[in-house]
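Let us practice reading a record.
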Amino acid sequence: MTSDNYNGQLLSLLGLCRAASLASFGHDAAKSALRDSRARLCLVCGDASPRLAEEFKYLTNAASVPLREIKATSLDIKQATQYKAAVLTVNDKGFANKIMALL
């Protein structure tokens, strides 16, 4: 699978998640979803700061939620979902499984 195809499929799925209100975008929303046990998957963008990536590594370990770093940037996320975020959670098991299969 080419990088463009991978990014396209991933961003399309994230756009669907947003449209269905099944994702939490940004630091505070993602942290809240992890704390409230709504998150099924946490994604950290390739351009996220090391501090942010480390913080969510700790939070996802504590919540037993998978964490994946993706190649897409926060601007790619914004184009697909209308939310600029370097971290997000997917709050639906079906979407989370499909995204993990892509990764």
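A brief commentary: The chain is about 55% helix and 15% strand.
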